[in-house]
């Protein structure tokens, strides 16, 4: 930046901002917190070395990643953004399990309605092996009659075995996403 105002890094480090300052394009003076957190986690010298080793066109993305990781490390010093990713993957798995249970219950209700209503057309009985249908096939509508019967008779066992222990993840939710409700 040179003559007008020093960049956030030079301001924090209390040094004169040179025209060729490697930090100036990525850490403007109007956002000092951005460099402060990166400096706290990685150190100015390490960030400078990383940026010098990268081509100029990749430096902005690298700074963005460093800022993200530094923020994650401040929130969760042990796992950083890996903890956030792990939390989100576990949440996706839990939601997929809930979706599978809901789809099984819907199928069970539909089959009970079909048994109660004699006017409904019978399901086709293609040759299939018991339990060969997958949960993904439920939404596609291409599982066989035997598979549906298997799911109906065994859905209670499936529901009981899919209970999830939330105690393990509740602390993570507060540490990684401090303002989220668990």
Automatic annotation (TrEMBL):
This is LOB domain-containing protein. PANTHER family: LOB DOMAIN-CONTAINING PROTEIN 12 (PTHR31301:SF15), LOB DOMAIN-CONTAINING PROTEIN 4-RELATED (PTHR31301). It comes from the Eukaryota. PROSITE patterns: LOB. InterPro entries: LOB (IPR004883). Residues 5-106 form the LOB domain. It holds the Pfam family LOB. It comes from Hibiscus trionum (Flower of an hour). Belongs to the LOB domain-containing protein family.
């Amino acid at each position: 930046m040179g003559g007008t105002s020093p960049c956030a890094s030079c301001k924090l480090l209390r040094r004169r901002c040179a025209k060729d300052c490697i930090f100036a394009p990525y850490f403007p003076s109007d956002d000092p917190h951005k460099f402060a957190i990166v400096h706290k986690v990685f150190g100015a010298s390490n960030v400078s070395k990383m940026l010098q080793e990268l081509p100029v066109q990749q430096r902005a993305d690298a700074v963005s990643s460093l800022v993200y990781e530094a923020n994650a490390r401040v929130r969760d010093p042990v796992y950083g953004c890996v903890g956030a990713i792990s939390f989100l993957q576990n949440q996706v798995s839990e939601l997929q399990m809930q979706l599978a249970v809901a789809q099984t219950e819907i199928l069970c209700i539909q089959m009970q309605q079909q048994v109660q209503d004699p006017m409904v057309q019978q399901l086709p009985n293609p040759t299939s092996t018991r339990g060969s249908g997958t949960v993904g096939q439920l939404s596609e509508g291409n599982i066989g009659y035997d598979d549906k019967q298997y799911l109906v008779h065994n859905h209670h066992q499936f529901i009981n075995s899919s209970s999830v222990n939330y105690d393990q993840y509740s602390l993570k939710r507060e540490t990684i996403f401090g303002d989220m409700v668990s």
